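W.,

You were right to be curious about this one. When I first looked at the sequence I had no strong expectations either way, so I just let the prediction run and decided to look at it fresh. Below is the sequence, 609 residues in total, followed by the output.
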Amino acid sequence: MYIYDLPTTGTISFSDFLVTTDLVSQVSQTTQLRARLRAVLKENRAGTSILSSSSATSSSQAECNDGGVGNTDWLTIIKRIEEYLPNLLAVFNSVQTDDLILRYEPVFSWRTSISSSRFRGPGRMELAGLYYELASTLLTYSLTLSNFATAAVNGLGSFETNRSLSSQQRKDKDDKLRWAADTLCRASGILLYLSTELLPKWKDSVGSLDGLPPDLTQEATLGLSKVCLAEAQALAIRKLVSPSLASSVDRVTPGPPLEKGHPSASLLAKLHLCVVEDIEASLALMRTVGEKGRLKGKKGGVGGRKAGGGGGGEPGLSANYEHELSSRISETNDAIAPMGLGDAEEGGAGGGGGGGGVGKKKLFGKFKLGHKGKNDAPSPSPSPSPAGGGGRGGGGFYSAPSTTTSSNSDLEISSSLLKYLSFSSQFHRAIAYKWLAIDSGESSNKIGTAISLLSLSTSILSSSTLRDLTSSLCNISISSSTLLPTKKRGKTGDRGVVDQELATVEHWLQSYKKLNDTVSFQPIPPAAEVQAKVPAGRAALLVKKYSLPSPGWGPGSEGYRGRGGEGLSREEMHLLGEEHPARRNLVGMDGGGGGGGGRVAYAGQGAYY
């Protein structure tokens, strides 16, 4: 399981860009709740940076995804997001209905989570509009839920083979596995909502989303949704085999025959194949995002050289542009030299102050990422674009991402995430081949087919590619269905689990070879033949449909009456169709927290497996 680096966000006051006489306290409360969320996110990043700097002893280990899984209070971050979301949705809807008026175009700043620059690390992207704030908050929410589930699973250890546990203790740990799987399904639902509903709605409003960071593209959010669902499926497999591991007799040399009461080998194979399908689909989507980013970067460079210093679109670094940028950097250096660089972190990509060389790098990063100082006068709101359809909230609400205020051409999907997906795909495919082989040998007496499948599994688990991926990753965990006792985990990756599975597969392979050489005498089919007969995967869990919570106030809240008297309260919202002009651009109208359709949730809803 993977630990994501959570983003941080810059400071902003909603009262600075919102005009109101009736909702002053509500707007101030929204600013306060956002500040609390920002504080816990900065605390999380500070803890992650300390852990990374203390453990980074080599360049390869610097790529390992540590995240402070054991030292972070993920629940506090989740609570802060859940407190902030209803108020953010209230601001979002109130701008639509003119209960709040935009004084100028708000610009929000968020760091990236799953993408980074080769030289500057995670970039800080400044984009305009409340859609960007809502999308970034939901992305952070889903990744925090995933990290929370991962931390809970890592805390369980390998309890399946621990015979000293009582039945109640074992039941509690099984329930924890089920809870973690449910939490991952929730995270998958939020990411799916982002990809299929919120981002398309944003695109329809502004006409184009070319300036978004890779994290908020439809492909990346859909890929992350599939990753969370695949990890939930892997936990469901682990819970399924947990009772048989607890009661198994032979834990040193597991082999034929399969013990009585063990889950169906065919079912386990199909469940692992479903995990492989989800992860491979996610990996393809992530690579698509990277290829699109590189193509845009090349087009932007060519366009900039052709247009010189005054062209539109994505300007390149022409001579005039470089001269102007150098002048701005020199003037800013002279202006802030007496004050130091204590506040560099707010708009740039780095942290606190430092020497002159460090300061120049941070200032250059600010200008390249479109930094706007605290004392800069706010720019007036542009007129609504035709693609956005105007909108009652003003042009700033519908502002499309602008490549002149942010730079995402050098941002790429994190290499550690891509390596983790490649590793997980190969690992679960090898385990699927193992269970297909056991099913062929135990249920169908096809010893030759079983030997061929076990040979495929052995070649994957012992391949140099998988070993290289394992050595380049750390602080990950793989849900395994091995029958061997858990060995001590090494410092890098989950090599111990890979070695355990390899030992199990080799023992089954040697047993079947001996049986075939002495009793069965069946021909061994080629690898291509058995691979062509591999069945499709079977899902154990489904994505939990996500709907935004009800707004804390304003349109969609209880007892709300608009300026024109139209019924946009929570009680009357069902009288208006989804395409009604009064509610078409509003969000959070379903009134759910994590379910759908506004129906009342009940204890254990959706936990049927």
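Here's what jumped out at me. The longest strand covers residues 107-111. And, maybe more interesting for your project: The beta strands are 18-19, 101-102, 107-111, 115-117, 124-128, 411-413.

Coffee later to discuss?

I.
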